[in-house]
Amino acid sequence: MLNNTLVIKMAKRKRYTKLFEAEIVRKAIGESFIKMNPMLMMKNPVMFTVEIGTAVMLVVTVISAFNGSSAQGSFGYNLAITVLLLLTNLFGNFAEAVAEARGKAQAASLRKTREITPANIILPGGEVKIISSSELKKGDVFIVSAGETIPTDGEIIEGLASIDESAITGESAPVIREAGTDHSGVVGGTRVLSDKIKVLVTGNPGESFLDKMIALVEGANRQKTPNEIALTILLAGFTIVFLLVTATLPPFAEYSKTIITIAALVSLFVCLIPTTIGALLSAIGIAGMDRALRANVIAKSGKAVENAGDIDTVLLDKTGTITIGNRKATNFYPAKGVERNDFIKYCILSSIADQTPEGKSILELAEKNNIKTSDGETKDARFIKFTAETRMSGIDLSDGTSVRKGAWDAIKNYSNNCNGEIEELQQFVVDIAEKGGTPLAVAVNKKALGVIQLEDIIKPGIQERFERLRKMGVKTVMVTGDNPLTAKYIAKMAGVDDFIAEAKPEDKLRYIKEEQQQGKLVAMMGDGTNDAPALAQADVAVAMNTGTQAAKEASNMVDLDNDPTKLLEVIEVGKQMLITRGNVTTFSLANDVAKYFAIIPALFASSIPGLNALNIMHLSSSESAIMSAVIFNALIIPALIPLALKGVKYKAIGATALLRRNLLLYGLGGVISPFIGIKLIDMLVSLFV
Amino acid sequence: MNTEIMGVFAAFIITILLAYPLGKYMTKVFKGEKVWTDFLSPVEKLIFRLSGVDPDKKMDWKENLKSMLMINLFFFIWAYLLLLIKHPFMNPMNIGSMEAALAFNTAASFVSNTNLQHYSGETGASYFAQVFILMFLQFVSAATGIASASILFKGLSQRQASDLGNFYNLLVKSVTRILLPISFVLALVLLLNGSPMTFSGAKEIVTLQGESVKVATGPVAPMIAIKHLGTNGGGFFGANSSHPFENPNYLTNMLEVITELLIAIGLVFSFGFYLGKKKLGMLLFGVMTIFFISFSSLAIHWESRGNPLIDNLSISQNAGNMEGKEVRFGAAASAYFGTASTATSTGAVNSMHDSFMPLSGGIFLIDMMINAIYGGVGVGFLNFFVYLVVAVFIAGLMVGRTPELLGKKIEAKEIKIAAIVLLIHPLLILTGTAIAAHISAVNPSVGWVHNPGYHGFSEMLYEFTSASANNGSGFEGLGDNTNFWNIMCGAVMLLARFIPIIGPVSIAGMLAKKKTIPESAGTLRIDSATFGVVLISVIVIVAALSFFPALALGPVAEFFSI
């Protein structure tokens, strides 16, 4: 068992390894050749035309081998061009194959978690039978006991268990999952550490989230995202334009009494069409999904991830996202005339039996104040449990002292202080609430002695994240059950743009609808069943993996880490995908300028000597100029694979500044770099030609 | 020389000063707001009553395009049939009918606002044809462009609505409220400067040598007014604006060049006013102007410098390259006129483009290849809009958001249409020229090209570029009144006219129905200078990359070979 966990953990660590692993590269090289199949190439119009060009050149090369005439160039030259074009195709295929292989490796490490395991299915008759997990169908119910692995995804319908989810999340601390709560979901491959649960299977084999995600990163059945489709159309348009440019060149040359070799024409065409982006387009898409998966987010579709980049408004739950889990006691306010240490002592007494995090935090704070109670004091004491009726909890000591703790209005009604004292305490209560805290009052023998301040602790670093979001143009909205006063204070402290206080599930839904009415795209994260309508309404909905099945069904992504701030990472992944595509497109088109200056003078140098003036790079010969351009065109593809896989870094500096930056880098860079590259290659090539 | 450049500069400044208020005025006309020309509404009402059109009917983009195509088809048939017959009245010179291919070419040419003239002006068309066919089409073709632009504006300003205005209403108002009043003033000025206005046929004149000659005349002044204002360019005379009756002096020359830019520039401003985005309007104007000023400067530079081959003969060229130019205009004003005439789709010429220096001719070609530096009235903006869509798409991706134009998402459908429209121009120009080049190469005896070599190639390239840009100017020197050129160019003109109207208007119609996304910090601001750079790059990349080899073989090869 231990061994098994270890393997999974190692697989987990593998996610952060280098870009090109030997094993992945080996697989990808093989795939590059398989992908030459025209039926597969047809999906990518740009690269498909390159393949046709390669085929044409192959024929020309074969003919020039047997034909004495050198009208179409020498055999060696034709062969060199053919090989270079073939390489261009292979490089493009390699880029896609690497992305897929990385995705597959990623998927495999997730799949390991769903190896076939035995499942104790409960048959309709009630008896338990052991079957293979792969036979489980939607609607089946199985039992898992301590030490066993959960065979497939499902929802607990009976019982509670502590579960080791490290195989999925990498987090070693066990988590509690319980029927009927918002944390009733269990994931196949995780292990039950204690207790026994009855689980309802929620999906047929092959239909789970993970299966969908695996399909997305593996690429085979990958659906293109909307922006990718639009870009493909635009690139196809450019390809047709360049097809026209090259196809009309022979008649032009005929008029100018020049002969253009087929090799030169095909080279010109391949250099002009946007091969760089054409070759890397699908790799960029797959790598984007892969990055989402590396962030432990499972997306139902590529579209969902792409949409995330467009999000205008994000709804975030206060608890767990903006503030650390639970409220903590941060101060004691004894009433006038009450000894502070005495008050704290009573606070301890009131909380000794309180198992809530708030209660525990009161004890912690008291400890920090170096105040303790002796065991003798609580001997034979009677603990009073919190009830909805009294809205107080506390303790009745054996000496007859009764200590009560509760919300201020409950204590106020319960105690019999004089008006002056009430007013004084009331002041504490108002002050605390205004600063975003929650007041709890403590009364001894029906006399209120003071107020404990409970406060939300804002997560460190969350302000910076919201600031970053603001620069991206994303509005953050905090959702909380707190009263408006408290909510406003926390919202201000955390730096969110808006908040929904005293939120009920239908408030979230309404808020989302209102935002969408204005044309905005809204994202939210949720886990509970009552979140499901809002999740379904949101444009990007991320469910926690531990959430209920309803919440997961309504979402288009699932976060395996249950980390509420994950939404921010998903948004960046979505933006990165678009930016990488946009920048590589710009780079690819900008490259054409230099290629024209290399090839056009080369085509006409002999018949129109004047045009040699355009040979501003002073390339050594026509043949070497054309070959250098083709070599550069081919090499730029593998050179940009790392960029395609890692994605262009998104910088939250505002759209115009970002555009300026990328325009300089990829636009101007795209114009200049091929001049340098082609010149250097030409210097090398001219040594051989 | 300096005075000449000052003259050009003054002409451009005056153009902008007039175009700005015109833009405001046109916006009001488009929106149906109160304007001082409202006294003309009875005329419009009469037109609507006679034609049975309901000008208030709300139409979506499909209905609008259908109306636009239907009425233009009617205009085409009207022109074609009437050109086929010899006109028994308003024909004092007794000019015969046109043969079928020429009539087709001429009808296509004037319906498409091109005004490529394969017939020879004053001797090829009767007064009836000049007034009721050609001049009439000059008005309505210009109005078609303006109305289409207005529909685009409305489409871009709509929020989730399909109503794009009423094409018929906009067509009529473009004539009555914009074209007619300005033309009227213009014609008067031309008249006062010596342009004739008569229906009485050629005048017998005895020259100084004592010979008796017939001087062609006719209803010239009004036709010249709309010829420039509507970026038509089809003159009364074959010699176009170099003819002293069409363009008597430097002042009228200035006036003509101003008016051909006027509405095109005014519409760019109008776009800003219509959408309440003045800054964006200014940016688009700025982008176009950067191209326009650069191109004008280059052309003026090369023309003022003169021909190095003549320098080699030790002949003084202080006046610049004056071959094919009128002394009353000079080299700079002629170069500016040529740039303005090709940048807008006017195609009027006050000098022979054939005789310009090779790279000036190249500039004229690039002007028409881009076809959106101000461009033809209305259609220039529609063409520019396509570049805008592509630029927004690429820039949008570069900043990591689904590209948006004015709050509307640009998606696959819009990109598909934009790609088709972008494709159509190189398709028509390059394939047309390729066919012509091939025929000339295998059979030089067709006798089209009178100047062999690179220049001959430029002539063929120019002819197709001019037809496809709906420009209408000619490089001349090309024997183009043949069935091949008449039919090919006629077809090119029609395709290149209507596809680039249908495309942008349908994109606007689709965008109109979409939700408007509010701006945020992540939204790309398209009124920023940075976006202007993207826009310029897209225009350069698309135009330069499509036509670089063709230009290299024509003007560029000629330039380097001098």
Which key terms come to mind for this protein?
heterodimer, A: 689 residues, alpha+beta, 7-stranded mixed sheet, 6-stranded antiparallel sheet, 52% helix, elongated, disordered N terminus, B: 562 residues, mainly alpha, two-stranded antiparallel sheet, 18 helices
What is the number of E strands of chain B? 4
Overall helicity of chain B = 55-70%
Largest interface, with counts of residues having CB < 8 Å to the other chain, equals: A-B, 73 and 70 residues
The helix count of chain A comes to 24
Low-confidence stretches of chain B: none
**Overall shape of chain B:** globular
Question: How does this model look, in words?
Answer:
The complex is a heterodimer of chains A (689) and B (562). In chain A, a hairpin with a 5-residue loop joins β14 and β15 (402-407). Chain A is α+β, with helices and mostly antiparallel strands and 689 residues long. In chain A, the strands form four sheets. Chain A has a seven-stranded mixed β-sheet, sandwiched between helices. Chain A has a six-stranded antiparallel β-sheet with strand order 2-1-3-9-4-7, with no helix packed on it. A six-stranded antiparallel β-sheet of chain A has the order 12-17-16-15-14-13, sandwiched between helices. Chain A starts with a helix and ends with a helix. Helices cover 52% and strands 16% of the residues of chain A. In chain A, α4 (45-66) runs antiparallel to α5 (75-111). By secondary structure, chain B is mainly alpha-helical. Chain B has a domain at 2-276. Helix content of chain B is 65%, strand content 2%. Chain B has helices at 2-31, 41-51, 61-84, 100-111, 121-124, 127-157, 167-192, 220-229, 250-275, 278-305, 308-312, 330-343, 358-370, 379-398, 412-442, 454-468, 483-513, 529-561, and strands at residues 203-206, 212-215, 404-405, 408-409. In chain B, strands 1-2 form a two-stranded antiparallel sheet. Chain B has a two-stranded antiparallel ribbon with strand order 3-4. In chain B, a hairpin with a 5-residue loop joins β1 and β2. Chain B is globular. Chain B starts with a helix and ends with a helix.
